[in-house]
Design goal:
Elements: H1 14-38, H2 50-54, E1 60-63, H3 71-75, E2 93-97, E3 100-109, E4 117-124
Antiparallel strand pairs: 1-2, 2-3, 3-4
Length: about 130
């Protein structure tokens, strides 16, 4: 009698693997930070474990909207051209960190510097649970 062959593992697309890793890392980070908050204050002068994590730079993008267009239309764009986006004025914008949407918000003018925009968060997107 021959030994049954193990079933080959089905490879997940690279994007799914990266998203699963990111979800696990986010959940782990939330757990660590939650534990840190529950602990009594550390001895004076002792650095908190989370301070290392809190100094890691991440790329934050605010996405106003998107559109699809043929390359021929893209090639005709020039200074002064207008590109219609898939969102309307007043709709929330996406807050994306390292390529993943984490929140939504509304555009606002900064009180301290009226020549600059900011985002007021209106919704935090729950992390997708990995299977």
């Amino acid at each position: 009698m021959s030994k049954p062959q193990p079933k080959p593992e089905i490879e997940k697309p690279e994007v799914d693997v990266e998203e699963d890793q990111l979800n696990r890392a986010i959940e782990e980070l939330r757990g660590v930070l939650s534990e840190e908050e529950k602990r009594p204050a550390a001895a004076a002068g002792a650095p908190a474990n989370s301070s290392v994590i809190m100094n890691i730079p991440v790329e934050v993008q605010i996405v106003l909207g998107s559109t699809e267009m043929p390359v021929s239309d893209l090639m005709t764009l020039q200074k002064g051209s207008t590109v219609a986006l898939d969102r309307r004025i007043g709709e929330p914008v996406d807050v994306v960190v390292n390529g993943r949407r984490i929140a939504r918000g509304e555009i606002t003018v900064l009180e301290a510097d009226p020549s600059r925009f900011g985002i007021r968060l209106t919704e935090i997107v729950a992390a997708a649970k990995s299977a």
